[in-house]
Amino acid sequence: MYDTIRPVIWKDGALQLLDQRLLPQREEYMLYHQPEAVATAIREMVVRGAPAIGISAAYGVVLSAKRAVEQGRNHWRLQVEEDICHLAQARPTAVNLNWALAEMGRVMAEVEADSDPVSLLLQRAQQIHEDDIANNHLMGRMGAALIARGSGAVLTHCNAGALATGGYGTALGVIRSAYAEQRIERVFADETRPWLQGARLTAWELVHDRIPVTLIAEGAAARLMQQGEVSWVVVGSDRIAANGDVANKIGTCGVAILARHYGVKMMVVAPTSTVDMALTSGDEIPIEERSGEELLNSFGTRVAAKGCQAWNPVFDITPASLVDVIVTERGVVEAPNAEKMAAMMASN
Ligand code: MRU
């Protein structure tokens, strides 16, 4: 009942992406045959959310190999490598994109000279996709177990749901499991400016699954916590550094500061494909800055005073010290630090 949404579908040799720019008004899938178009779809937010971006890029590599082989190119590897570089540049913050492309690169390196790369690459892309959904169910159970029965409500920021992953979701996976186990009764969703992932996507998913959801303006989070309405903040991540610092949608750090002030616990839910052990701290995580037009206008209508400028960083870094727990498919890290993260990553 809680796992029916699929934003990324591979069917009949092509990629289908649920156009998340149109939700919740319209549910339409776009069809992709070319890797360049997949890169554009990622950049333009047809598909968004760290794991969903990685999965889509993996299928983009399959499309690249398919085209190269169909065109009878002897140098299919060179062509696919070029397309991998192009896909990698689509968005900078979510490391799942680089992770999935590196996985596809590894498979490519193993393809023997006279064999067909497409089926091997497709197998790996589908495995990445299936593993992601399975990991979300696992993290859902582990994260939910941390939430005491009778906890009332939780707050989430942005959309770390089925739409942001292969299915089920990371933060929303925990929330779905916690609701199914009657640990929580309600979810508060931050609207999440400027793309309104909370209002458009998280609310849509939770209404779809009949989980009670209440939308709040970003600035209402302090009031909500002050009134003792929520016991946990549950969010996803785009990249976690080796010391446990967390990059996530802009606004997450502010929510974490509020949570610590008001004694609300902060849970980050992300697969290990989101963990970047090559970066010692969050200071090294590249933060995407998008066009100021996204702030000056709201879905095609100018809202800001003419002549003003806008600054639009779309992710921020929550220091590990403000995170109570990180949940991955390999286990739960409480009060994360470099040592505990390394131990978790080394475990199976
Ligand atoms: O800009 P977006 O919508 O791609 O940002 C998405 C987020 O910040 C999510 O919280 C994050 O990717 C985790 S998704 C499981």
Helical content, roughly? 40-55%
Bound molecules: 5-S-methyl-1-O-phosphono-5-thio-D-ribulose
CATH topology term of the largest domain: Rossmann fold
How are the strands of the largest sheet arranged? 6-5-4-7-10-15-16
Broad shape: globular
Structural features, described:
A hairpin with a 2-residue loop joins strand 12 and strand 13. The chain is of the alpha/beta class and 348 residues long. The chain has helices spanning 35-43, 50-70, 76-88, 95-110, 117-145, 171-180, 197-208, 221-226, 252-262, 293-296, 338-346, and strands spanning 8-11, 14-18, 29-32, 152-156, 184-190, 213-216, 230-235, 239-241, 246-249, 265-269, 275-276, 297-298, 301-302, 315-318, 325-328, 331-334. A 7-stranded mixed β-sheet has the order 6-5-4-7-10-15-16, with helices on both faces. Helix 1 (35-43) runs parallel beside helix 3 (76-88). The protein has 11 helices and 16 strands. The model has no long low-confidence stretch (mean pLDDT 97). Helices cover 40% and strands 19% of the residues. The chain folds into 2 domains: 8-135, translation initiation factor eif-2b, domain 1 (Four Helix Bundle (Hemerythrin (Met), subunit A), Up-down Bundle); 146-346, Rossmann fold, CATH 3.40.50. Bound molecules: 5-S-methyl-1-O-phosphono-5-thio-D-ribulose.
